[in-house]
Amino acid sequence: MNSILIVDDEPNYLVILSELLRDEGFEVFTASDGAKGLALVREVDLDLVITDMQMPGMDGLQLLQAIKKINSDLPVVMITAYAAVEKAVSAMQSGAFNYLAKPFSNDELIVTINKAVQHYSLIRENIRLRKAILTRTGFSGMVGKNARMVQVYELIEKVAPTPSSVLITGESGTGKELVAKAIHMNSPRQDKAFITVNCAALAETLLESELFGHEKGAFTGAVVMRKGRFELADGGTLFLDEIGEIPLALQSKLLRALQEKSFERVGGSKTLSVDVRIISATNKDLREEVDQGRFREDLYYRLNVIHVLLPPLRERMDDIPILVEYFIRTVSERLTKPGLSISPDALRLLVTLPWEGNVRELENTIERAAILCDNNRIEADDVQPESTNRSSQAAWTREMDLGQLIPDSVELNEVLYAVEEKMLNRALEATSFVQARAAERLGITKSLLQYKMKKYGIKKGK
């Protein structure tokens, strides 16, 4: 619901305008002078201010200038007598959205209001993210040609034009938010807001306020009225990330909002209606959460009308060269390193790694390698994925006396390479050079073993 403040020193005019706008579905606040109006601008999350030009004390032009210091984007419509049109033009030069000269028709007022509110809504959207999606390669910013990803693209194309709720599941780092944005950008709501809430990032009380907003004085620290994400997403899409983390006590209120498309702000009694499409995502098994009593079954079915399952990167390894090419291009632009490239050995190594962090880890690895590499060329030694460094220190290493085994003068890489080569030889000899068994013994993939054998020149019978 859009919130409008009317500022006028004539009580009858305030009553007439406020009743008209409430009938049109707006939430209306009123103030009898500029100072009171300015106080409400500071306290209330407004979408528009309508102010009379001629008022005692702070006039409309002074109020406009004060509002622009608080929120330069908030639209202000000036109302002026016909004889004072020159002042209205001056107000336009000071940043007013528009002006209306008395007498004006109700239709003229409503048209002006709708234009101003729509203008402000577009400003408040995250335009930068939308541009990023539209300029990326692949399907709506998604990169990959693997058969399972093609199935995801086809599902997005089918579900995007509908108002149905979508549940996106997959491991962390697989691109769930990117899928949500792709659905939004291919839907009839693409010109409206795409609002994200991370349900795992806030405590229960704060999450409720984040979702539904709060009235002034609703709780300690609530010094102003704030709209929640449901209101901000009205007409658009609300993406509930990490939905599996939402507290059980809050799930019933969320369910009601989804079923009835209405809610009350925290501390408020007025029921607000919204038109919002819900897309949610989780890396949990929500069906298992339901069985364990941690997630409401009725909410699960309300969210899971359409299910999009994203494959982990290890199940779409053929997409790694395409992803690497894309990340090198974007990292090159971001780090201002034109001509950044990757060697065939480094690319072969990337294809062999486990990628427990999925696409996000691959992107981080490319950026790290781009920073570390010499001569703008990423080599195998520059590749340092996080998932190969996560194992905790083994108990035997804590008991090892390095002073007895390794001279102080030896450099780290010399030790690492020597130990790695000896372990490779030992595993291969113990398995009669059966590479699959040797790789299993070492806890690595066969292709990674082959890469390391080539690196150290290890051959059977040598």
Topology:
Elements: E1 3-7, H1 11-23, E2 27-31, H2 34-43, E3 48-52, H3 60-70, E4 76-81, H4 85-93, E5 98-102, H5 106-124, H6 127-135, H7 147-159, E6 166-169, H8 176-185, E7 194-198, H9 204-212, H10 229-232, E8 237-241, H11 248-260, E9 262-264, E10 271-273, E11 277-282, H12 286-291, H13 297-303, E12 306-309, H14 320-334, E13 341-342, H15 344-352, H16 358-372, E14 377-378, H17 395-399, H18 402-405, H19 412-430, H20 435-442, H21 446-456
Parallel strand pairs: 1-2, 1-3, 3-4, 4-5, 6-11, 6-12, 7-8, 8-11, 13-14
Antiparallel strand pairs: 9-10
Note down, in words, how this protein is organized.
This protein is of the alpha/beta class. The protein is built from 21 helices and 14 strands. β9 and β10 (271-273) form a beta hairpin. α15 (344-352) packs antiparallel against α21, α19 (412-430) packs across α20 and α20 (435-442) crosses α21 (446-456). The model is unreliable at 127-137 and 390-394 (pLDDT under 50).
Short description:
The chain is of the alpha/beta class. It contains 21 helices and 14 strands.
